[in-house]
Structures are given as C-alpha cells and as structure tokens.
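chain below, 150 aa
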Amino acid sequence: MVAELRDRAEIIDALHRFGLGQDLQDEALFASSFAPDAELDFRPAAAKWGAEPPLMSGRDTIVTTILGMFTGRVATTHQVTNARIAITGDTAHLTALVEAQHLLLADRTTHALLKNPYDVELVRDGDRWVIRRLVIDNTWFLGEPTAIFG
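prediction:
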C-alpha cells in the first residue's frame, strides 16, 4: 500500500514538474518530467484555434522547443486538477485537467487562458516516474492563443 501511494505521488509529480518547469523556465526541472524518448502531442489543442504544430519527439527536442518559444517572451502558470491514475507494473496512465495561463511579457494585455485535458503515459525511472507520451487537448480558451503559440 505504501509503495502504491509513493508511486501515485511520483506520477502526479511528473506532471507538476512539467508545469512548474515551464512556469519557472527551469530547464532541468522541465526536462526531469520526460523520458528520453518522450513524445508531446499538442496538435489536438492547437487544432481548436487553427494551428498545426508538429508532434514533438525526444526529451531534448521538447525542452528546447517549448522553453525556446517561451523563455523571455511568455510567462506561464499551470494548475493541475482532477488527476486519475492507473498503474500497471512499471507503466502508468494519468488523466488530468490543466489550466494554463500564458501572458506575453512585452504586452501584458495579450494572453491565452487554456483549459486542457491531458492524457499521459508514464514509465518508472528508478524511484520516480517520467512522461513517455503526453497528448494535450483543449476544452475551452480565452484570449489569443495564436499570439502566444504562433
């Protein structure tokens, strides 16, 4: 029972590292949320406002792409709620709702507030868990996502 509770805490921590790593623009923290072969699929969310980003593959590509797009240009805050976790051996499935506020630093009146369902596949990495695949959809948004994401 204790081991399962620890796993559940570590699984949700992977998603917290993902969000807080962006919010703090902390490359090491952000990278720690991903497996080396991770995939991040933001296409379902972006399709809601007509964007067509590529599938991001590999931890280094994900970190470089996202932090490169935001650092010094966009401030973010992420809130994670409604987490549901299923563990099978050394893999896990997590669903959560993530509210993400994005604000242009050069023009603080330009923002995008997104409510996104996350579908996350994770793998055990020693004592912690890391994201192997993350699919981000969007339920609703306010503001101007195209100003934030291009």
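The mean pLDDT is 97. Residues 2-23 form the longest helix (22 residues).
thats it, cya
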